[in-house]
Amino acid sequence: MEPSQGLLVELRKEVSSSFTLDAKFTANGKPLGILGASGSGKSMTLRCIAGLATPTQGRIVLNGRVLFDSKQGINLPPHQRRIGFVFQNYALFPHMNVAENIGFGLQELPKAQRNKRVWKYIELMHLQGLEKRYPHELSGGQQQRVALARAMAIAPEALLLDEPLSALDTYLRNQIEMLLTEVFSNYQGATLFVTHKLEEAYRVCGNLLVLSEGNVIGYDSKEAIFEHPPSFRVAQLTECKNFSRVEIIDHQKIQALDWNCSLSVVEPIRKSLAYVGIRAHHLRFLKEPNQDNTFPCWLVTMSETQHRVTLYLNLYTPSRNPKQYHLQAEVFKEKWHQIKAWPEPWYVELDALRLILMES
């Protein structure tokens, strides 16, 4: 029985002799962020849903309507799928002005109704005064808003966005991100948001799907994916920096082989456990070793951004080799100014509640 609401995707796409995309998921309500490295199949997934590429086999169902079914021979053309698509390069029509671009998919509406719909999205995307301009006369942020308005104007049942912020500078990216959050909060359809930036996906989306080499390796709420990644590869793709192979000591203790320390854990230990990890911002510095999972450490080297400092730490002994370290810690500069005055060794705590236990 087909679901009456939301997007159901079960597809297999043999892209080449060396790459096959296998994707199975649903999307309804909260925006779904699709994460993965370049070439993992993110954009191809969107293209198959939109009808711009044909899966080798599978089925795609949107609000009970079958868009594609290889067994039944159903493959609706893009214009019948009621899907809005925002391309990475915006794909605006250069010979059309802003209003004409936004109204492109509304040709079947009476002129008065079409103009009313176009103006609605000009206002929603804060494009007043730009409606007669052509794409080459717009900034990157303005082009992005036009592309989003065009996708939304057709009243789509699903909205697909392929790395919509990647070509924008930091200031414009933040502006458009805030606009997207506002738009998504009022949009009732399924939303898929492709990105390779974890922080971007975390801020904009409620759920995350992680692709690697064409396969879904993680699919859950953003909190679950971030705090309890199911595998080493998912943890890597969600930007965890600290990993160690493990040996199980008992039901509450493991040996972190690459960090040369034993750790108490609170999560159940499975026989399939292969790695332990901890995110760089979860390391805590202490003056005294008065907590479990606390070890002496020396600073090997550091790097900084305008707000944070990354500290590369070696446990138990100093290291003169900048490439020889056990852990990365991220702290705000205010904290760095505090701890750099402490005599070494410092003490670093790997909180048992923050440890990530992973399969290979």
Distance between the termini: 36 Å
Approximate shape: globular
The CATH architecture term of the largest domain is 3-Layer(aba) Sandwich
What do the pLDDT scores average to?
93
Kindly describe this structure.
There is one protein chain. The protein is of the alpha+beta class and 360 residues long. It folds into two domains: 7-236, Rossmann fold (3-Layer(aba) Sandwich), CATH 3.40.50; 242-358, no CATH class. The protein has nine helices and 21 strands. The longest helix is centred in the middle third of the chain and has 17 residues, at 170-186.
Salient structural properties:
single chain, 360 residues, alpha+beta, Rossmann fold, 2 domains, 6-stranded mixed sheet, 5-stranded antiparallel sheet, 21 strands, 24% helix
Entry summary:
The protein has 360 residues and is an alpha+beta fold. The protein has helices at residues 42-50, 98-102, 111-124, 140-153, 170-186, 198-204, 222-227, 232-237, 333-339; strands spanning 7-16, 19-27, 32-36, 57-62, 65-69, 74-75, 83-86, 158-162, 190-194, 207-212, 215-221, 242-250, 253-256, 261-264, 275-278, 284-286, 294-304, 308-315, 327-332, 346-349, 356-358.
Write the layout of secondary structure elements.
Layout: E1 7-16, E2 19-27, E3 32-36, H1 42-50, E4 57-62, E5 65-69, E6 74-75, E7 83-86, H2 98-102, H3 111-124, H4 140-153, E8 158-162, H5 170-186, E9 190-194, H6 198-204, E10 207-212, E11 215-221, H7 222-227, H8 232-237, E12 242-250, E13 253-256, E14 261-264, E15 275-278, E16 284-286, E17 294-304, E18 308-315, E19 327-332, H9 333-339, E20 346-349, E21 356-358
Parallel strand pairs: 3-9, 3-10, 7-8, 8-9
Antiparallel strand pairs: 1-2, 1-4, 4-5, 5-6, 10-11, 12-13, 12-15, 13-14, 15-21, 16-20, 17-18, 17-20, 18-19
